[in-house]
Amino acid sequence: MSRVEVKKTYKLFINGAFPRSESGRVFEVKNSKGQFIANPALASRKDLRDSVVAARAAFPKWSGSTAYLRGQIIYRIAEMLEGRREQFEAELKSIGDKSKIDDVIDLIVWYAGWSDKLSALNGVTNPVSGPFYNFTTPEALGVVGVISKTDFLNFIDSLISVIVSGNSAVIVAPGSLAVPAMSFAEVLATSDLPAGVVNILTGKIDELAPWMASHMDIDGMDISGAKKASELKKSGAENLKRIHEFTQVRNPARILAFMEAKTVWHTVGI
Question: Could you tell me the pTM of the whole model?
Answer without folding.
Answer: 0.92
